[in-house]
Amino acid sequence: MKEPRNFMSVSFAAMSQNEAFARIAVASFISQLDITMDELEEIKTVVSEAVTNAIIHGYDENPEGVVHISVRIDEGAVELVVEDNGKGIEDVEQAMQPLYTTKPELERSGMGFTIMENFMDSLEVATAVGKGTTVRLTKRLSFAKALQN
């Protein structure tokens, strides 16, 4: 049975304490699906990584910044978009390298994009210096993959 297309979006201040809210909001929304606990945890982790990047790197933890998240459920896939209007990424290819971080003084691991790539089926980054970054991630869920076989 094919589920209907469904979506949600939420915006919040670029404050580190809102990262937990973002995880819970997305997890609550996608829990309506026949999703495994592993898939749910992977998506929650990806939300944390993308939101933390927006807050720490996009806005330099300026609470006047706004992080936007939208989630779309479509035919057994989850599409997650995290956007900011922060400073953008100067070199996306470098930023996506494992262990690369622009904030070593904050003890950042530099694994955010690597985790996103490993937990999701696709990752697209659109950015413009001085204008912000949009991270678009998709994951095809196991129940949908099983229906195709």
TrEMBL record:
Residue ranges of every copy of the Histidine kinase/HSP90-like ATPase domain listed in the record: 38-143
Protein name: Anti-sigma F factor
Biological process annotations from GO: asexual sporulation; negative regulation of sporulation resulting in formation of a cellular spore; sporulation resulting in formation of a cellular spore
GO MF entries: ATP binding; protein serine kinase activity; protein serine/threonine kinase activity; sigma factor antagonist activity
Enzyme Commission designation: 2.7.11.1
Keyword field contains Cytoplasm: no
Species of origin: Brevibacillus gelatini
One Pfam short name: HATPase_c_2
NCBIfam families recorded: spIIAB
Function text: Binds to sigma F and blocks its ability to form an RNA polymerase holoenzyme (E-sigma F). Phosphorylates SpoIIAA on a serine residue. This phosphorylation may enable SpoIIAA to act as an anti-anti-sigma factor that counteracts SpoIIAB and thus releases sigma F from inhibition.
Coiled-coil blocks: none
Catalytic activity: L-threonyl-[protein] + ATP = O-phospho-L-threonyl-[protein] + ADP + H(+); L-seryl-[protein] + ATP = O-phospho-L-seryl-[protein] + ADP + H(+)
Keywords annotated in UniProt: ATP-binding, Kinase, Nucleotide-binding, Serine/threonine-protein kinase, Sporulation, Transferase
HAMAP family: Anti_sigma_F
Gene3D superfamilies, alphabetized: Histidine kinase-like ATPase, C-terminal domain (3.30.565.10)
UniProt similarity note: Belongs to the anti-sigma-factor family.
InterPro entries linked: Anti-sigma-factor_SerPK, Anti-sigma_F, HATPase_C_sf, HATPase_dom
